[in-house]
Write a structure and sequence with these properties.
Distance between the termini: 102 Å
Order of helices and strands: HH
Number of strands: 0
Shape: rod-shaped
Strand content: under 5%
Structural class: mainly alpha
Number of helices: 2
Largest sheet: none
């Protein structure tokens, strides 16, 4: 092969490999972003469900009424 054809061929292969590496990185990054978004949605839904359950239990047991009716604890100063 002539020397005039070898250098552009090598440079082209190197640039092609770099493009493929960056494309692969971008694809993996998009997959991770999608998974993170799905985890955030699931976490938000689970948090809402847990809060609803805790509220229901508090209302059913009257915990809110007992806490509201109890006098505040005060400390007496030591003499």
């Amino acid at each position: 092969m002539k020397r005039e054809l070898v250098f552009p061929l090598i440079i082209g292969l190197i640039l092609g490999a770099l493009v493929m590496v960056f494309w692969q990185f971008n694809t993996r990054l998009n997959n991770v972003l999608t998974a993170t978004s799905q985890l955030e949605q699931a976490t938000a839904q689970n948090t809402k469900t847990v809060n609803d359950i805790v509220t229901f239990i508090n209302q059913a047991t009257g915990a809110n009424k007992a806490a509201a009716g109890a006098p505040a604890a005060t400390e007496t100063p030591a003499k």
